[in-house]
Design a protein that fits this description.
Cytochrome Bc1 Complex, Chain D, domain 2; 10 helices; 45% helix
Length: 249
């Protein structure tokens, strides 16, 4: 005899199993369970806007981060990627002491809130003037990208929601550089292991050139904000500079 469950019942059962098995899971398993639960929920963008108030402290109300790479641009990112990174940080499957408190259930809530805030962030228009590299070796950077990165990140840097591969177009060069180094040395523990292995042979020239090229990949026009745009959902939010965090994450 086969039993068919409705979508909502299946999601509820998944959440119950997640709650019951949380303490027996490894960090990677815990994060994976939260991701699977969150991506099957129907997000509420209005609730996501409220949850985003916590994120705006560092990522700014527009979600654009900073050109110096202290904080990344998260506006326009694929919802599945945002969900995965939040779940990984919360489960300590990705080391990020600065972000960890902001992903706690006390501040962010449960998997529904993760789905909500991911949906809100993903629909924010992107910075039209992200930080780029020196621009001196772009032909080589394009060649390195075409030979090594296209299969996963796409020909335009658009990523892959199904495999939780981030879109990387429009990202700040200095943030890309720092994360690349951490992936290469194994510091970013939730990285795709195929990528970790692949980039071990990259020379300093390869790294600088390819990330410079990536930083210049333009998002589609419909995803870009107009110059000078400010998030109307946060009209009174201070946009004054904030101190940089310690470089330990």
């Amino acid at each position: 005899m086969s039993i068919k469950l409705s979508h909502s019942v299946a999601v509820c059962l998944l959440l119950l199993l997640l709650s019951a098995g949380l303490h027996a899971q490894t960090p990677a398993e815990q994060a994976r369970a939260e991701v699977e639960a969150a991506i099957h929920l129907t997000p509420d963008v209005e609730r996501g806007k409220k949850a985003f108030m916590v994120c705006a402290v560092c990522h700014r109300p527009e979600g654009w981060g900073f050109e110096d790479g202290t904080y990344p641009q998260i506006a326009g990112q694929l919802p599945a990627v945002i969900i995965k990174q939040l779940a990984d940080i919360r489960a300590r499957n990705r080391d990020n002491p600065t972000m960890l408190p902001f992903t706690s259930p006390q501040l962010l809530g449960g998997v529904q809130e993760i789905a909500d805030v991911a949906a809100y962030i993903s629909q924010l228009p992107m910075d039209p003037m992200n930080g780029v590299g020196p621009g001196v070796d772009l032909a080589w950077g394009e060649q390195v990208y075409r030979e090594n990165c296209v299969d996963c990140h796409g020909d335009r840097g658009q990523g892959d929601a199904t495999d939780h591969i981030p879109l990387i177009y429009g990202q700040h060069y200095r943030y890309l550089y720092r994360q690349f180094e951490w992936i290469k040395m194994g510091k970013r523990r939730n990285s795709d292991q195929k990528m970790v292995k692949q980039i071990q042979r990259f020379s300093p020239r390869d790294i600088s050139a390819v990330l410079d090229y990536v930083s210049r990949l333009r998002p589609p026009a419909e995803k870009l904000a107009q110059p000078g745009w400010q998030n109307p959902d946060f009209p009174n939010y201070s946009r004054a500079p904030i101190p940089a965090p310690p470089r330990r994450w």
